[in-house]
Every structure is written in structure tokens, then in C-alpha cells.
Amino acid sequence: MGSRAEPPRRVRWRGPALALAVGAAVVAFFLALPEPGEERLAPPAPGFVVRDVRLFDGERMHDAATVVMRDGRVVEAGPGVAAPGDLPVIEGRGRTLMPGLIDAHVHTWGDALAESLNFGVTTVLDMFSDPGPHQVLRRTREALSPRAHADKFSAGQLATAPGGHGTQFGVSVDTLTTPAQAPAWVDARLAEGSDFIKIVYEPRTAEGLGPPFPSIDRATLGALVAATQARQRLAVVHVSRHIPAQEALEAGADGLVHVHVDRVADATLVQLARERGAFVTPALAVIAGFDPTPPPAGQPREPERLAADPAVRPFLTPEQRRGLTDPPRTKLVMFRLDTALASVRALHEGGVQILAGSDAPNPGTAHGASLHHELELLVRAGLTPIEALRAATSAPAQRFGLADRGRIAPGQRADLLLVAGDPSLDIRATRAIERIWKNGSPVERRRYPEAP
Amino acid sequence: MNLPALLWAETAAEWRKAWRQPAFAIPTLVLPLAFYGLFGIVLARPGGGNAAYLMATYGVFASLGPALFAFGAGIAHERETGQMALKQVSPLPVPVVLGAKLLTCLGFTGIVVLALYALAAWGGGVALPREAWLALALVHALAAVPLGLLGLAVGLSFRSSAAMGVTNLLFMALAVLGGLWIPVFLFPAWMQAISLAMPTFHLAELALAGSGRAIAGSVATHAAAVAGFTLAFAAAVALAWRRAHR
Question: Which stretches within A199-331 are classed as H helix?
Fold first, then answer.
């Protein structure tokens, strides 16, 4: 044995000395490891100017505006603003500068936030996903450092009954069944980092008709809404049918995150939503994705048409292309785009605030791209293009309390989109993206080659 | 020589031997770091928020390599080439031989795990509370015990060529089905059922809990499962030891 050749005298001091040195190095290493709050964040981009551009500021259009960005924020915006000499200037003539889009209904995992940003969606409202990644991302969300992904505000886990909607996706869900559990349930979500609360309400009718899975009851819904609002957070509700939608509004829900699909919204529902000041995020894109009605001969299905759009297609990942073009595997006979469009028309005309959300990445939808589809569908439902743009910028920012997003004004985060043409004339111009900025830093758009 | 000095000398010899075997050192040191670098950092699109999750599970993967390859394939090789017999005829207590191997294994695990933390912290932007870093290190280091015992059982039960095959198979199964590369919740239900039988799955869940993540089961259940696996593997080692030296 080699060790026997070594004099024992050496062994006696070398061992402990080495152990001590290694131990000290390990302790020093652990002390150097970063703790939350010690993340290394790059400084914000210095700034730039967009000159002589058509400006949608989140509320209305302005012609021939100049917008000045510094250190990740907008510092000046409007017609008659002079460009400072020290910043690079981008000529905006013939183009429209608008706030980065906000998708008010998504579910994120994997590459979702990068895919969203690739289409100019700079902020998403996540209506249910694993709270783990969210806890990490929300720590640096307010920073103005350059980022290659959209920011996320999230419900985290959703409120549903054991075996109810939301439990089928593999993400572990803390379920509940009684009103008494509601306050602790809401507290647990807020401790997990949820920014707002999402509740699934899919009860059966008195005759026992309805979805083939359980739901929380009306009393539990009411208790959840009350507990959430008592903690100064928003309570939003997933419904798919008219009567539950009405009951959710009566319970005081801040918003419905789907338009119901079983029949067209009647005057009672519209009036209730308006009087309660609730918003509706119809997520028409996902209804179009599930609609089993065959399109007219020779016409593509709605999501296929989006995937074929030359302004959209090169920027879709191969998986996103498949998600849009594959026929849905689940047959949901209730999902009729025409019915949903008629309901949105009724709600909008009745004065109910509409938010734009895609429900990506459900079948027939793709992160980022489907919000542009949603804008087109909202215009088809009777919103003006400007109203549709508000539904994807200032309106969700205002409803969800996102203070520095959704508008272009001094102090706002420089999440921006420069598009060719004028989306107030043709809403599909939002897809003709020329540049994207996140926190005032340019975003390199990713193109994906066609499969051979 | 007293016992600690013997153990020190034997460990030093084992340590030197391990470093001189690229077949052991390279896969155990480089593989976890390269995989984490690839899947946790390079191929991860921004905004996934998974760098800390993957660090927790890849840390178990990092302790899997030394444990299985040092003990599994390594011991079978030493038995076949007569090195083990030589040690047994020398006046060296058996616990010292195995203890030196375990310490070497822990040393390797320590190096890989610390390198992984450095890569995750300064390459992947992972920031955790100090107690979470320590909890992770505890789980990742202690993972070497059940996994080392499993490797030992394999090394004592199979001939060298067979042991290499079995070790590789176990290595893959424990990594994949344990959810060390891909989260178990993405598996179909039948694969998730198999995952429950993997000690690495329970170790990974403990690591995730240590890192501050909410896990589906309770820490006590997973800890009990790990303890159960440790006992079972220890029994298998005792049995294999008797059979191998009858």
C-alpha cells in the first residue's frame, strides 16, 4: 500500500490541515452563493427616440408624435416633443408605436414567456400554472434590466373542487369543498406569490346537467370572492355557461375570464355585469380553436388561417404551428364562435369592459400570436380597433393594477411595439411588427424555419 | 496505525486512484455539469424560471454518478482483478475499506454538487435563501448513502462486465424515472407510478422541498421512503457480501 511508505508524522498534521482548509473554502463558498435580492441585474438600456410616429398611447391615437425613452422608461411622449441630441433616433413615419401588448388569459410553462415576447406581448396574466417558476420570476419583475421574455402576473394555483376542472393537467392543485376553507385557501395562494385569485365555477343544473366533473358550490364561490376581496386582490372566475356566469357576477366576481358558450348573453347578464363593474375576458381565440363547425368549403379553420398569415408564420415555433393547425382532439360541441361573438357584442354594446386574452397554449392557440387573433375576433364582435387595442393594453393594466404598463406616457415602462401601417384602420396591422422593446431594450425576434 | 489514520490513508489512496481513472472521473464530474449547462442554461429559453428546479434535481443526478460507478462497476472490477482479495488478506478492517470508498464518493459528490451550485448561481441566475442552499447541500450529500449502498450491492452481486451493464441501466432508470432530467409530472400516469419506486424520485422531491418549492407529497413521506430504500439496500449489501465471500 502506498500509504505505508509515508511517515506517520506527516499524516498527523497534513490530514487535519487539509480538512480545515477544505472546510473553510466550503464555508466561504456557501457565504458567497447569492440569496434572493442579490440577483445580478444588468443596468437598463440607455435609451432612444422614435420620431414622427403615429402613437397609440394606450387610450387614443396621436399623429406625428415623438417618444423619448431613457433607462427603461418613457420620459416624454406626444406631438411637439423635441428629440434630445444624445439618443439614437428611429424614424417612425408610416408606422405606429404602441404599448407592448398584455394577454389577459394565458397559462405559462416552458418557453411561454419567450414565445409571447416574440409577438410583442410584453406582459401576460397567467390564469393558472405551477407557482414555483412564478415565485422566482416575480422577484425581478419590477426591475428595468433588459429581458428576453415577457413579464408574468399570475393566479398561481386555481380554486377548484377535488377532481374538478384544472386538476387534469398534472400540476398539483390544492382543492377545496367548503366555504369555511376559503380564507385559508386564499391566504395560502397569497403566501405562494399569487397576484390575484382565479376560481373555477362549473356547477351542474338542478336537473343534474353540466360538465362531467365536480365543481365547488355557490357558497364556496361566494366565500372565495369575499376572502379575496377582503385581502384587496382581484377574484376572477372561469365559467362556461350562462347561469354560472350570472351567479359568479352575483357573488361579486371582479371579472369573468371566459365568455360563456351555451347561449348568447341575455339582457339580465349584460345588465348585471355592467352594474357590478365586472370585466369579461372572452378568450374568443380558444373558442375559435375548439369550434367543431366545419369551415365553408375551401376555407381554412380560424387557427389555421392565423398560422398561414405570412406576418405570423415565420415567428411561430414548429410546436406552435402544429398547435394551431392540428384539429382539436377534444370535441367540445358547445364551443361555437358565432354564439360567443354574439355574446361579446351584447356585452360590449351594453357597456361591459372587455379584456383581450387568448387562453394560450390551449388547442388552436399559440402564445403571443393568438393575442393578435383575439384582437381581430374582438373587432369582429363589434369593438372598434381602438377599443380592441385598449382591451390589450391600458384596460388590463388598469383592472389588474399594473401601474407602469399598458400605456405610453412619462414614467411608463418602455415596453413598446413598432408596427407598419395603422391598426386603427386594420387591426391586423398589429402583426406587422417591425420592432419590439422590453424595458427599453430591443428584442431580437426569433424566426423558425419551415420543416422540410 | 490507529483507525482514523488508517481510514485517512486508505481514503487518500482511493481518492488518488479515482482521479487516475478517467473512466470514472470524467462521467461523474463532467456529465451532470454539462447536462445542467445544456438543459438548464443554454437550451432554456428565457423566462422559464426553472433554473432552481433543475439545480435541485440535477444535484441528485450529480450524486448518482459517483455512487453507482465508484461502488457498482468499481467494486466488481476490484473483485475480479483480485484487488479486493488483496485487501481482505491484508490486516485492514472491512469497514475501513468501505468507509474509504464512501468518503471518496462523498468527496466526488461534494465537488460536483458545489460546481453545480456555482454554475446555477452565476450562470443560471439562481438565488436562494442561505438555509435553502444548506438544505439542498444536505440532501445532495446524503443522497450518496442510499445510492452508494445500491451501487455496492450491484458491485458485490455481479461480475465486472455484467456490473457495468447493470450500473448503466440503473443510472439511466434512476435518472429518467426519478425525474432528475424531466419533471415527473410531465410523465404519463403509468410512468409516474414507476417513479414512486425510484429512490431518486424521493430524493429529488426532498431536494425540491429543501430549495423552498411546494411539493405534492409531504417531506416526512419522502424521507421515510428514502430511509426505507437505505435499509433495503443495506440489507442487500449484507446479503451480497456474505454470498460473495462464502
Answer: 218-230, 242-250, 267-276, 284-290, 302-308, 318-325
**Three cell numbers written together for A219:** 357558497
Helix (H, G, I), strand (E, B) or coil at A396: helix
Question: Which element (helix H / strand E) includes A101?
Answer: strand A101-106
Q: For residue A405, which of A158, A99, A150, A96 has the smallest C-alpha distance?
A: A99
Q: Is A159 helix (H, G, I), strand (E, B) or coil?
A: strand
Neighboring chain B residues of A147 at a CB cutoff of 8 Å: 46-47
Q: Are strands A95-99 and A47-56 parallel, antiparallel or unpaired?
A: parallel
Backbone φ and ψ of A161, nearest 5° = -80, 160
- pLDDT tops 60 at residue A6: no
**pTM of the entire structure?**
0.88
How far CA B103 is from CA of A111, A417, B87, B99, B127, in Å, comes to 41, 58, 17, 6, 29
- Joined grid coordinates for residue B218: 409531504
Separation between Cα atoms, residue A410 and residue A183, nearest integer Å: 39
DSSP B41: I
Per-residue model confidence as pLDDT tens digits over A105-120: 999 988 999 999 999 9
| Residue range A189-217: mean pLDDT, rounded | 92
Residue of chain B whose Cα is closest to the Cα of A189: B214
- Residues of chain A with Cβ-Cβ distance to B134 below 8 Å are 30
Phi-psi region of A120 (alpha: psi -120 to 50; beta: other; left: phi over 0): left
Write out the DSSP string of B118-131: HHHHHHS-----HH
pLDDT digits (tens, 9 = 90+) for B28-87: 888 899 999 998 888 887 888 889 999 999 999 999 988 888 767 778 888 888 887 887
Shortest CA distance from A16: residue in chain B: B8
| CB atoms B213 and A115 under 8 Å | no
Beta carbons of A11 and B9 less than 8 Å apart: yes
Query: A359 in contact with B at a CB cutoff of 8 Å?
Result: no
CA gap B147, B235 in Å, rounded: 13
Q: Nearest Cα to A102, choosing from A307, A403, A405?
A: A405
**Single-letter residue type at A18:** L
Contact: B10, A34; criterion CB under 8 Å: no
Rg of the Cα atoms in chain B: 18
**CA–CA distance, A94 with A78 (Å, rounded to integer):** 16
Residue A99 DSSP one-character state = E
Strand blocks (E) in B75-234? none
Give yes or no for a contact between A326 and A363, defined as CB atoms under 8 angstroms apart.
yes
d(CA B75, CA B83): 9
Residue A63 makes CB contacts below 8 A (sequence gap 6+) with: A54, A55, A79
User: What is the per-residue pLDDT across B161-203, written as a single tens digit (0 to 9) for each?
Assistant: 888 889 999 999 999 999 999 888 888 889 999 999 999 999 9
CA distance linking residue A426 with residue A31, whole number of Å:
57
d(CA A87, CA A70): 9
Establish whether this prediction's ipTM goes over 0.90.
no
Interface mutation target, options A31, A33, A116, A138, chain B, most CBs of B under 10 Å: A33
Comparing A386 with B24, which gets the higher pLDDT? A386
**pLDDT in the model for residue A13:** 72
Measured CA to CA in angstroms, residue A75 lies from A46, A69, A390 at distances of 12, 6, 21
- pLDDT for B95 equals 80
